[in-house]
Amino acid sequence: MNNTLDRRSFLKVSALAGGGIVISFNWLAGCALPLEKIREMPKEWFELNSYVKIGENGVIMLFSPNPEFGSNVKTSMPMILAEELDVDWKMVVVEQADFWPERYQRQFTGGSQGIRQGWAPLRTAGATARQMLINAAAKAWNVPPTEITTVGGVLEHKSSGKNAGYGAFASAAASMEVPGEVKLKKPGDFKIIGSSKQNVDFEKIVSGKPLFGIDYKAEGMKYAAIVHPPAFGMRLKAFDASRALAMPGIQEVFSFNIFNEDYQRNYFDTATFPEMIAVVGNSTWEVIQAKKAIQIEWENAPESTFTLNAFGNVIKAKIPAGLEDTKDHKTQMEAYTLKSGNILRRDGDPEGAFKRAAKIIEKTYTAPFLAHNPMEPVNCYAHVTAEGADIYGPTQAPEFILGTLADRLGLPKEKIHIRLARMGGGFGVRAYSHQMVEAAVISQKTGLPIKLVYTREDEMTYGIYRPAYSATYRAALDENDQLLALHVKAGGIPETPIHANRFPAGAVQHYLAEGWQIESNITIGAFRAPRSNFIAVAEQSFLDELAEVIGKDPIQFRLDLLKKAAANPVGKNNDYDPRRYAGVLELVREKSGWDNPPKDLHRGVSAYFCHNTYVAEVVDIVMQENRPVVEKVYAAVDCGIVINPDAARNMGEGAIVDGIGNALYGEIAFQNGVPDKMNFDTYRMIRMREAPKSIEIHFVENQEDPTGLGEPFFPPVFGALANALYKAMDKRFYDQPFGPQLKI
Amino acid sequence: MANFEIHINGKHAQVNVDPATPLLWVLRDHLNLVGTKYGCGIAQCGACTIHLDGNAIRSCMLPIAGVGKAKITTIEGFYSENPDHPVIKAWEAHDVPQCGYCQAGQIMTAAAFLENNPKPEDEEIEFAMNGNLCRCGTYTRIKAAVKSAAQNL
Question: In CATH, what is the architecture of B83-151?
Answer without folding.
Answer: Orthogonal Bundle (1.10)
